């Protein structure tokens, strides 16, 4: 395993490469510039036009880093201690797994949101779990997988919320979001189906796909609460746009999909106990009778139905950015904040209940994460 470190006062820094230069990759670059204990060491891109571009430009920063994006992954992996793997796994799960295995076998720790099935390693497909566990053991490295919606809201925060209640009937992790500013055209139109006919079912909403994506979160929360989830079901509602809509994502015709409400429901002995729910719109006026955010473009909520009835609402805003940028940032920082802890553990795959919520890279008075104002 790579051992060299970069000095940071009396600390030592982990050299972290970012693999992927989309929304999450750009967020990881911005965050790495501010995390004490972590140093950006390289950027890997699959987009030819981005090769040779300074990392700061890719992240929308004003300065330069001197670190240029490259498509030569081997060179970057050989010169880092950890990889923040932010490339998509939505439509290329096999490629993502192969990339992550490559890093682990090279002795490089990996944090990623790309492999849904490993949100709960205990219920992941044995072939994938064993393959990556063996790679981690062979390389002396570790892996942490957490989500982007955001992962901490669908695991540790839910378990914490339940611990505040005397009685729990059902616990719901809810994302309420307006996708009109989410700069991912393929995800918005193709994966989620916005602007498509209601006669077509988009990939993300096909039967069994939601369970593949969020079933691990359901089982992980159940495990954290001492529940043996024995059945997972899905519920889906879709609504059309009443009129045409134009926003930064383009034009959407009246009558096409304007909103969906998706539930992935974990049951114990036939009773709903853990629910992951997504209420997603391409226009805030669509489906007004469904839950809406308290303010702005979106909320993440953990709702415990029981005694007491408890709701925790989380909003994250990035100056000059969208609510999606805020959610991406918190999800990314959960992953990056785990790296120093991960580097001290035995080689293995870790989940959101095992990785401490406390960052092992806390801000100090001197650290860049404190505002200068």
Gross morphology: globular
Number of structurally distinct domains: 2
Do you know the CATH topology of the largest domain?
Rossmann fold
Annotated CATH homologous superfamily of the largest domain: NAD(P)-binding Rossmann-like Domain
Per DSSP, the total helix count is 10
Q: In which range does the helix fraction lie? A: 25-40%
Give the radius of gyration: 20 Å
CATH class of the largest domain: Alpha Beta
| CATH architecture term of the largest domain | 3-Layer(aba) Sandwich
Structural class: alpha/beta
Unreliable stretches: 1-11, 363-372
Largest sheet: 7 strands, mixed
The chain-level mean pLDDT equals 89
The termini sit apart by: 40 Å
Strand tally: 15
Share in β-strands: 25-35%
SSE arrangement, N to C = EEHEHHEHEHEHEHHEEEEEEEHHE
So what's the oligomer here? single chain
Brief synopsis:
This is Dihydrodipicolinate reductase. Pfam families: DAP_DH_C (PF19328). This protein has 373 residues and is α/β, with parallel strands linked by helices.
């Amino acid at each position: 395993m790579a051992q060299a470190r970069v000095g940071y006062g009396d600390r030592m820094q982990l050299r972290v490469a970012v693999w992927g230069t989309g929304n999450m990759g750009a967020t990881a670059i911005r965050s790495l510039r501010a995390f004490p204990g972590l140093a950006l060491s390289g950027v890997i891109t699959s987009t030819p036009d981005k090769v040779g571009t300074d990392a700061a430009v890719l992240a929308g920063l004003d300065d330069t880093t001197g670190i240029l994006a490259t498509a030569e992954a081997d060179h970057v992996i050989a010169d880092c201690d950890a990889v923040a793997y932010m490339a998509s796994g939505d439509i290329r799960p096999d490629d993502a797994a192969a990339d992550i295995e490559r890093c682990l076998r090279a002795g490089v720790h990996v944090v990623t949101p790309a492999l849904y099935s490993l949100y709960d390693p205990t219920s992941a497909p044995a072939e994938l779990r064993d393959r990556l566990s063996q790679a981690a053991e062979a390389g002396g490295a570790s892996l942490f997988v957490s989500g982007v919606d955001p992962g901490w809201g669908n695991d540790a925060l839910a378990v914490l919320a339940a611990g505040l209640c005397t009685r729990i009937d059902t616990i719901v992790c809810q994302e309420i979001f307006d996708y009109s500013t989410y700069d991912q055209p393929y995800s918005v139109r193709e994966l989620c189906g916005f602007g498509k006919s209601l006669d077509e079912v988009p990939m993300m909403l096909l039967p069994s796909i939601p369970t593949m994506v969020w079933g691990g979160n359901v089982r992980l929360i159940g495990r954290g609460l001492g529940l043996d989830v024995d059945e997972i079901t899905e519920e889906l509602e879709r609504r059309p746009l009443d009129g045409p809509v134009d926003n930064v994502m383009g034009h959407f015709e009246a009558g096409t999909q304007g909103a969906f409400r998706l539930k992935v429901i974990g049951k114990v002995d036939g009773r709903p106990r853990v629910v992951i729910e997504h209420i997603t719109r391409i226009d805030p006026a669509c489906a007004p009778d469904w839950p809406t955010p308290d303010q702005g473009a979106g909320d993440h909520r953990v709702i415990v139905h029981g005694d007491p009835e408890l709701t925790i609402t989380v909003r994250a805003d990035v100056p000059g950015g969208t609510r999606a940028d805020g959610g991406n940032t918190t999800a990314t920082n959960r992953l990056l904040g785990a790296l120093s802890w991960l580097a001290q553990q035995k080689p293995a795959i870790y989940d959101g209940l095992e990785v401490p919520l406390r960052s092992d890279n806390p801000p100090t008075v001197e650290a860049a994460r404190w505002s200068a104002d």
